[in-house]
Amino acid sequence: MGRAPCCDKNGLKKGPWTPEEDLNLINYIQKNGPGNWRNLPKNAGLQRCGKSCRLRWTNYLRPDIKRGRFSFEEEETIIQLHSVLGNKWSAIAARLPGRTDNEIKNYWNTHIRKRLLRMGIDPVTHAPRLDFLDLSSILAANSSSFCNPSLLNLSSLLGSTQPLFNPELLRLASTILSLNNNNNKLDHQNINPELFNNPQNLQESHHLFSNGQIPQLVQPNNQFLQTAPISSEGFNNPMLAPNNVDNNQSNMPKIISSSCPILSSQENIISQPNYVDCRSNNSSTSNIPSLNIGDFPESSYFQNLLDSYSDDHHEAFGLNSVMSTPSSSTNNTTVNNNINSTSSTEDEREISYCSNLLKFEIPESLDINDFL
DNA sequence: AAAACTATCAACCGCGTAAGT
DNA sequence: CACTTACGCGGTTGATAGTTT
């Protein structure tokens, strides 16, 4: 069955609305209320298609529309909801009072999507993607820093806009570690467990485990990445290593700390309930939690990062809170002390996701040419 | 100063579907 | 039940403002 045209388009105006047209539409809707869009233009004396009138009203003229920059909380809410709902812009907009689906869609495509790509996160699946990264440009731009044998802060290496749980960077870190290890084995005690919380990094870092055994992980799609049993020798497994280690006992590059405001717990170690609890001092396999990320069928890597953060912060950003209390997200200002929710710049927001996750100390013997 | 390029966002288009006849 | 109509949604376009060269 052919679709009926929404209106007769002959002689109807298109393009940007004039102030007079806006006034006509506002006046008419104030008197008669919205609805019956097909007849509205004729009744309101507008040479417009009803669809155009509806769009103008719902996206621009409606009195309850909130205009201006999206707050950090709104942005976080959008990301979380998108990880669950996908491109259901109207559903997302329903949870963001004052924001229209069109506005959210535009903001997603022009800001959030690009940021996620820079972070190495697939904006569709919210899963880490190595192929989205242009690591060569990053390295080239910072090669002078690499050649400096002194302390290298990865944050400065990446510039202020580069996030630090970028999977490619984690892979680079893994490579640095492996290249500089004379025994081609890791000194597990110096490894930030977050390095392995990314399933892809974990998969690619399989050779880094001295015993070749990697904890079992379940991806969001519930497929097992690694099924090898976990060694009972906890110290051979970086995910289970105690955190009271001596960072000075090796000439390995040292991952000094993890202090990402979103990701880290007060213990400076990732609390990632859906993965391995790195805080455990007990190396027994019996204490390894079930690594199932299936609480939400469409949960994502990023989702879990955010949720892990929220677990430690009174569910300030938990998915449940977002889903159940549409307006709470915009009112919540307790999320993070490091995040200025209203005045943060684009770069600051990105940094807030993951700043200072990793800091590396690069030994003098390391040759940057190996990476270029 | 001007051309070229990029980012933004309002508006349009076509499709799916609920509601009406 | 079949058909028609209207609405709402998501993808896309294009005008314009801003930035870079």
Automatic annotation (TrEMBL):
Subcellular location: Nucleus
CDD domains: SANT
Gene3D superfamilies assigned to the protein according to its UniProt record, in alphabetical order: Homeodomain-like (1.10.10.60)
Residue ranges annotated for the Myb-like domain, each copy included: 9-61, 62-112
Residue ranges of every copy of the HTH myb-type domain listed in the record: 9-65, 66-116
InterPro entries associated with the record: Homeodomain-like_sf, Myb_dom, Myb_TF_plants, SANT/Myb
Region spans: Disordered: 324-344
Keywords assigned: DNA-binding, Nucleus, Repeat
Gene Ontology MF term list: DNA binding
Protein name: Uncharacterized protein
Native organism: Cannabis sativa
